[in-house]
Amino acid sequence: MLISSMGPTIDDVADLRRANIFSVVTTNGQKTFTDTTADFAIVDRSEYGSAFAGKIRMLDYSIEEVRACRTFLLSLGLKRRQLSELVEETTTVRDGAINTELSESFRMKAYALFR
To answer: pTM higher than 0.90, yes or no?
Structure first.
């Protein structure tokens, strides 16, 4: 967190890439220290943490700690390790019916919000 508060650049933290400074929880619940080259994900949304607990190796930081260390993690090139970057959510509807009036109303509201 202290490093993040200093606004590190990629060059500032280059030597830390190969240092075993990241506590990672393995799929069997064991904790180990590793570097940025190891395979692990960063939980940046609580619902993803719950969904993937025990299924993948995850950085042993709380969401608050991840947010506080964000600048540091990004300067190490770990953005693509965040579950919000890795997970693709899809939604499906079964036995649904198209309501064109409701769809058009939604489109108009969305247009007004995002223009």
So the answer is: no
